Amino acid sequence: MAVQVVDSIDRSKVPFLRGILTRSLVNAGLSFDRAYEIANEIRDEIGSEEEITTEELKSRVKKYLKSSDEKEVLRRYSTGSIGQPIRVIDRD
Q1: Whole-angstrom Cα distance, residue 46 to residue 1?
Q2: How many CB atoms lie under 10 A from the CB of residue 3?
């Protein structure tokens, strides 16, 4: 049975999917191959658990990125600045 990821806010549950984590890591700046490798490692690490909160999952990913010396990716993943639009204000 797949590990269920429990939303820390509304308590809804969805199965852990490597593809979603892989895409988040690619959006944070990793190559697809490296992101997929990390997603596999995380899946293996949490595979025996029934549930994990979104906060715990994020914490584990951050820990893995930190230990892998992926500082810039860690910053983007941690701040949620992945794919955020840039606003330009012209006051003239």
Answers
A1: 12
A2: 18
Measured distance CA(53)–CA(11) in Å, rounded: 9
Strand partners, 64: none
Q: What is the pLDDT of residues 44-55, one digit of tens each?
A: 999 899 999 999
One-letter amino acid at 67 equals S
The C-alpha atoms of residue 12 and residue 22 are separated, in whole angstroms, by 21
b/e code 24-61 from CB counts within 10 Å (16+ = b): bbbebbbeeebbbebbeebeeebeeeeebeeeebbeeb
Q: What is the pTM of this model?
A: 0.78
Per-residue tokens: 23: 């895409």
Amino acid at the residue 18: R
Q: How far apart are CA 91 and CA 83, in angstroms?
A: 25
